[in-house]
Amino acid sequence: MLHLRAVCPPASTERALAVLREHPGATHLVLFAGAAIDPKGDVLEADVAREATDEVLAALCDLGIDRDGGITLEQIDTSLSDAADKAELDAPGDGADALVWEELVARTGEESRLNATYLAFLVIACLLAAAGVITDSAVTIVGAMVVGPEFGPLAALAVGLVCRRGDLVRRAGTALAVGFPVAIAVTAGLTWVGGRVGLLDAAAISGDHDVDFVYQVGVWSLVVAVLAGAAGMLSMTSAKSAVLVGVFISVTTVPAAGYIGVAAVLGQWGKVLASAGQLAVNLVGIVLAAALVLLVRRRVPARNRPLSRG
C-alpha cells in the first residue's frame, strides 16, 4: 500500500474527504483541520491500495488539490490492519501489477537529471569498461555494466514519449547526449595518458579477446537490448528494483562507450565505428522496448492511465 498525504484548501476538503471515503481502495483516513501552514489549509492522510492509487490521484487532481495544495505518496513497507487488507481486496486489480503513473514520472524524472553524480557514475563506468577492454577481463566489463547509470535517462525518454511529456524527453535526451560524449572523452584522455607512460599499446585490443563481444554488433545485439528494455521497464513499473541489476548486466551500452575511447586513442577506427553502432543499437532498442511496455500497460487495464496535467 501507499500512504497518501494531501494539503487541501479548506474549500476542497469535504469533496476530497468524499473521494477517499467512497473509494474502496482507501482506508485509515485522517483529517487534521487547519494543520497546514504553507500552503494554508487542512491535511488529509490515508492509506491507499497501490492498484487504486491512480484513480484516487486523478479524482484529487480534478479538485485542483495538486495546484492549490499538494499531494505526496510514500511506500508502506509493513501494515498490520484488517481495514488495509480489506482495501487491497476491494480495490480492482492486483497491487503487484499496478502502475502508478505519477510515481513513475517522478522517479524517472529524478533519475534522468544531468548532474555531477550522474556524470561521475557514467565516467567511472566507462573507465571500468576501458580497464576491462585493456586487460581482457570480462568480469571488469560486467562491473562497468552494473555501475552505469544510463537506464534512468533511457527509461525517462520512454516515459516522456508515451506520456507526451516534452520536459522529460528533453531532460533525458540531454543527459544521454552530454553524458556519453563526456565519459568517452575522459576515457580517451586517460587512455592516452596510459599510452604515454607505457601502460598500453595497440596490441591491447588486437587479435581475439574474450571481450570482443562489446563491439560485435548484430541482430542479437538488438534482441538483447529489446528484452533488457522490456524487463527494465517492467521492473520500474512493478517496483521490483532487483531485476534492474540483471538488466544492466545484459546490455553493452557503457562497455561500448568505453571501447570507443580506447580504440580511438589506439587508432582502431573500425572498432570505434563498430562500438558506436553497438551503443546506438542498444540505446534505441532499450527505449523502443520500454515505450512499448508502457503503451501496453497504459491500455490494460484502462484505469491505470497517466494523468494529463499541463
TrEMBL record:
Name under which the protein is recorded: Hydrophobic domain-containing protein
Signal peptide: none
Pfam family of the protein (one): DUF389
Annotated transmembrane regions: 116-135, 141-163, 175-193, 213-235, 242-266, 272-296
Origin species: Actinokineospora diospyrosa
UniProt superkingdom: Bacteria
Keyword annotations from UniProtKB, A to Z: Membrane, Transmembrane, Transmembrane helix
